[in-house]
Design brief:
By secondary structure, the protein is an alpha+beta fold. The protein is built from two helices and five strands, in the order ββααβββ. It is globular and about 40 Å long.
Length: 119
């Protein structure tokens, strides 16, 4: 699948968070600019077409496979080289409603990020 067929809105390309999209076979089909920068040390845009399973540990692979089978979302935070990020992974669906793959959003979050309870 080429990125032209994804029908992405223009604003998605330069968002200040990394967006990586994979198909049902775990092949990377899209990376926005931030995603390409984030994974520049692994090849950046050259990762398109590669299988994400090759870059994950067994625990992560289990989560990826479960999401692709059952649907749903997975969210967590990480810290790497002093930078905190929130990772949000969720399934995307084809026009027929079947699971098409996963979208991962990765955004830098401040260490003292406020948390609000709203009613």
């Amino acid at each position: 699948m080429d990125t032209d067929s994804l029908k992405l809105p223009e604003w998605i390309f330069s968002m200040n968070c990394a967006i990586t999209v994979v198909d049902k076979d775990c092949r990377i089909i899209y990376m926005n600019d931030r995603s390409r920068q984030t994974f520049a040390n692994r090849g950046g845009a050259k990762l398109i077409g590669h299988n994400i399973i090759d870059y994950h540990n067994p625990r992560s692979i289990e989560i990826i496979r479960r999401l692709l089978k059952e649907g749903g979302s997975n969210a967590y935070t990480i810290e790497k080289e002093g930078v905190r990020k929130m990772i949000y992974q969720t399934t995307w669906h084809k026009d027929d409603g079947s699971i098409g793959g996963l979208v991962e959003l990765s955004m830098i979050i401040p260490e003292d990020m406020p948390h609000y309870i709203r009613h």
